[in-house]
Every structure is written in C-alpha cells, then in structure tokens.
Amino acid sequence: MSDDSVLAPGADPRDQADSPGPFPAPDLPTSVARNVVAWTRNNREHTDAAADRTWAAEGITWGVFGVPDESIGSPLGDLAGLDVVELGCGTAYFSAWLARRGARPVGVDPTPAQLETARRMQAQTGIHFPLIEAPGERVPLPDSSFDVAFSEYGASLWADPERWIPEAARLLRPGGQLVFLTNSVLVHLCEPQEGVVGEALLRPQAGMYRIAWPGEDGEEYGLSHGDWIRLLRRHGFEVLDLVELYAPPDAATHGYYDYVTPEWAAKWPAEELWVARRQN
Ligand SMILES: C[S@@+](CC[C@H](N)C(=O)[O-])C[C@H]1O[C@@H](n2cnc3c(N)ncnc32)[C@H](O)[C@@H]1O
Q: Which of 226, 227, 240, 256 registers the highest number of CB atoms within 10 A of its CB?
C-alpha cells in the first residue's frame, strides 16, 4: 500500500498553524475538523516531543497509566505476519511496537502534524509502514483487508462511533479482531469541563454520546456499555471481552494527560478495552 498523504512534498504540517486540513467535509461530522485542530496543538505541546520515548519503549503498555500488556492478558495476541490497521494512530508508536513484533501495520490519522511526527520517527528508527491521512469515519482502504483493527485512544475516543465502527467492520476480514481502548463510562460521567475527574456524577448517562469540550479542546464520544454492545452487534461483531483498566500500584500522574489521578484510577476503572470479533 502506498503512502496517501495529502501534504505537498516537503511541507511541514505544523506550519499550517492549527488548520483543520481538508476538513470540514460535507459528509463527515463537524467533530473531525475540531479534533484535527485540537490534535495539531497537542502535537506541538506534547506528542512530538514525547515520540522519541514512546517509540523506544520495549514493552507494550496501555493507556495513561502504562498498564503492562501481559497484566491484562495481551488482548491483541500474537500479531506476527498479520495485517493490522490502527485507527487514529497519532504519532504511531503503538503500530511501531507491533511492527517490531512482526505485524504489518497501517497507521490512519486525520491530523497531518501527528503523521509528520510518525514519519520523522520512521526515518529515525528505520521502522517503516504506510501512514494514511484520514479520519476513522472514512478510511480510503479496501474492504476485508485486515486481520486486526485497533485503536488506543484514537478513533475509539475521537471519531463518531456510528461511523467508525462500520468502517472497522468493513476493513476487517471475516473473523478479524477489533480491539480498542477508550475512557471508561465513569470517567465520562465524572470528568468536569475543567480540572480532574472526581467522585461526583456530573453528566447524565442517559443520551450520552458526543462530549464537546470548551475552546479548541475538541469533541469526544462516549457510550454506555449497553450502547457499545448494541452498536457492535449491529455491525456484525461478537463481543469477546471488556477489560476495565485500573492504575497499577506504582502508577504516577501522567505528565500531560493529568485529567485523572492514579489514586482515583486505582479505585475505579479510568479506561476500558473492548475486544470483539467480526463474524463471518
Ligand atoms: C491520543 S492520540 C492516539 C494515538 C496514541 N495511541 C496516543 O495515545 O497518543 C489521538 C489521535 O486521534 C486522532 N483523531 C482525531 N480525530 C479522529 C478521527 N475522527 N478518527 C481517527 N482518529 C482521530 C488524533 O489526530 C490523534 O492523533
């Protein structure tokens, strides 16, 4: 597969100063353009500088508290030789970890600055795989071309589930696995507009779907467990597992994603990881 960037050769996407890129597009939710702006800034403030460290990590870890993959039963399994698509890859460190383990990843993300960091890291490390500039809602890749689709806080949190779940189903071969990590329902319910997640329910679960943040902080999507299960089943998935992630005992507050403390996340799950299989 070829690199499908829409940037001019040699262009630095960070020069576009928080531009929403080719979005908004009439057939996509307005959250796509808002989230590209949010993640262009996030790249400048954090993810570009963190990429040397995240790409170099030896072990696979999940989420803001770095939960070791083995401690939750390695939900992706052995991916050697498999075609894997990461929906919302960001700087693509997770795909790089999987490439080092023999998988054939393709990273998909709508934010040019994030993909530019991924390209810089590919050149630096010699770990190359295709990077596609697109949102999870509309992925320009063929039907039934992947064994695994996954997302660690990419499409799973930032793309419209009514649009990206059917895209994941379309991209997967029959029997293929969908694995995604996102905020827990409790975090969605207890996260204030500003500040850290507390012990009060601040948002109704009834009708929860799109959660817009003030200013240029973008728009997340959060569903109740029942709504996730019905959506997945509607698009031909069998739900295999729902792993609720707690902060490990030695966890420290994440230096940048500090919206939830390790003390809170040791008592309640801050994150949840879904494992589903596309039925034949
Ligand atoms: C937290 S990063 C995920 C990558 C990485 N696992 C990480 O934790 O840094 C979130 C990524 O989601 C991407 N994103 C935003 N809107 C998206 C959409 N509609 N579809 C797919 N990804 C999206 C952003 O561009 C950003 O790179």
A: 227
CA dist., res. 33 & res. 49, Å (int): 23
pLDDT of residue 25: 77
Q: Give the pLDDT score at 21.
A: 63
- Answer for the pair 87, 161: CB distance below 8 angstroms, yes or no: no
Position 216 scores a pLDDT of 84
Question: How much is the pLDDT for 68?
Answer: 96
Helices (H) and strands (E) in the chain, counts: 9, 11
Question: Which stretches in the chain have pLDDT values below 50?
Answer: 1-17
- Residue 246's identity, in one-letter code, is Y
Instruction: Give the number of residues written for the chain.
Output: 280
Q: What is the reported pTM?
A: 0.92
Query: Which amino acid, residue 110?
Result: P
**Burial per residue of 23-62, b for 16 or more beta-carbon CB atoms within 10 angstroms, e otherwise:** beeeebbebbbbbbbbbbbbbeeebbebbeebbeeeebbb
Residue with tokens 């994150």: 271
Say what the alpha-carbon torsion angle 242, 65, 47, 222 is, to the nearest 10 degrees: 40
In the structure, which protein residues have their CB atom closer than 6 angstroms to any atom of ligand 1?
Answer: 32, 35, 39, 47, 87-90, 94, 109-111, 114, 135-137, 152-155, 158-159
Given this model, what pLDDT does residue 15 score?
38
pLDDT score recorded for residue 26: 75
Q: Please name the residue whose Cα sits nearest to atom 26 of ligand 1.
A: 90
- Class of residue 211 by CB neighbours under 10 A (exposed 0-12, middle 13-18, buried 19+): middle
Taking phi over 0 as left and psi of -120 to 50 as alpha, with beta for the rest, 152 belongs to beta
Please list, in sequence order, all residues whose beta carbon lies within 8 angstroms of the beta carbon of residue 247, skipping any fewer than 6 positions away: 65, 67, 262, 263, 265, 266, 270
